[in-house]
Structure formats: structure tokens, C-alpha cells
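ok here's 1-phosphofructokinase:
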Amino acid sequence: MILTVTPNPSLDRTYELPGLVRGTVLRATADRVDPGGKGINVSRAVAAAGHRTVAVAPMGGPEGALLARLLGEHGIEAAGVPVTGSTRINVTLVEPDATLTKINAAGPELSAAEAEDVLEAVRTRSAAADWIACCGSLPRGLPPRWYAELVARSHRAGARIALDTSGAALTAALREGPDVIKPNAQELAEAVGRPLATVGDALKAAEELRERGAGAVLASLGADGQLLVEASGAYFATARVATVRSNVGAGDASLAGFLTAGGQGPRALASAVAHGAAAVQLAGSLMPTPADLDLSAVTSSADVPLDRPLTEPVP
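and the structure:
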């Protein structure tokens, strides 16, 4: 079972448009609403793969009630924590060439008592969890150390933690030793305070974050592939992708694939890359099912191509 924690969940409304023109009335060619937030996306991918998952998240207002209902429809056990503010609604506009325009709402401000309620919900639900995946930005009202506190409490209870966040929240949590962190290239560069131009630069940055406390680093390098750096060594993997339709939630699908495949080693990395590659070929924030996966399209190796330039270097 994978337990996910999403401190700032959302309802994600996606509109597909024939084109995005400012100052005009646009008619969508398709639209959908999905339960959103990085941890909830992980739960959706875990459930789509046929595994049990529980999603802990603060939920408020009619939007929170709809979020809980949608989670149930996706086969996810919702562990909603009631809060005063309303769950946010995010909007994604998708153009035919897969260009995305995202509008993310701020979300509710959590009180100290509500923040503690979320931590308590994690504690009461975590006994049966193989992994706890803590994902996304922190909402207003939660200090940067909130994830660090969650990691510390969960470790004391014997749980393994995968953390996908950035900035000050990531920096603070590293001191508590999360078992796996999952930065993208931008977040990796931000964490070490220097630009990344090659895969070798990303490897050095990942090694530095391990020295600062992370047990393992699963770094997404966008179209260039993914890098796993752990105690057993470093591994690199890529996948062929025919057509990119939407990259919303692709990183979350990757984390789900990594954790459901054991959360360590080249086999888990290949699963992560296969899930991410499948996700970008689906509409909106749809999560891949086993039928969507193509492990034969994945190439993985312990020989990391250190000199390979990143397609989109991080300045």
C-alpha cells in the first residue's frame, strides 16, 4: 500500500482548445475535471496500476467534497482532513501542439491546528503503508519545516518516505533523511545553487543532496530521461515517446511507478521512466494503466552519460 500526503490538493480542470488567443471568447473542444495535487496524482497512478493507496489531504468546502468523491471513483481511499478554507481549483489550457498554460490557485490557509490534524491523519493511516509519498508545495500557514516534521515522525514509526517538493521545504527536510527525493532538473539546480548543463552536472548535484541527507535521489531530466543515485550506485534511463500530448502529472506517475516497483535499483528506475513516458502521451492529467506501459521502449544503464548536454539546461 502506498500512502500519499498532499498538503495543498486541488480540483484540476483541463480544457483542450483549438488555439489560445488573448482577449477573445474561446470554445473548448474537450474538457475534464480530475482530482489533483502531486500526491493525489501519485495515488491515482498507483490505483490505475491496481495497487491499494490511501490519500491524506486537507479538504474543505464543496470543492473538497467533490475531491473526496472523485478519489473514491478512482479507487482511492480518501483520508480527508476537514479544514475551514475551500479546496482550490486549478485550470490547464491545452493547445493542439501540446503547449500548456496552467493557472494554479493559492489554496486555503491552514491553521496550526489543521496542520497538526494532517500529521495525525498520516500517523493513524501509516501502519500498513509500504511507502509514504509526501508531495507538492506547502499551503499558506504551513512553515517550511512542516515536511521535515512529517519525515521525522514517520521515521520514528518505522515508515519509508519519498519526498517530492522544492525550495526551503526540501532543504529543511533533507536534515531528517528522507529515503527518496524526486526533484526535476530545475529543483535540483535550485537545491545546490548552481546551473546544470549536462547529465554529469545533474549527477554531481544528486550526490551532493545525498551527502546532505537524502537516502536516494530520483531526478527527472525532462525529455533527457531520469537519473537514480542511491547507495548501490548511479543509473540512467530514457524512453522513446511517439507523441507528447500533456506532461501534467507525468512526474507524479513516474514516482508511482518507482515506488510500486520497490523504490530502489534499476528495475524501479525503468518502471518510473515507463510510467512517465506513458503519462505524457495521455490527455490532461490522466494516469497510465498497465496496458499503457511499454517497458521495451525504456533503455537503462549503470553507465551514466556524464558529458551528454541537457536539452534544456538550467541556468
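+1. The mean pLDDT is 95.
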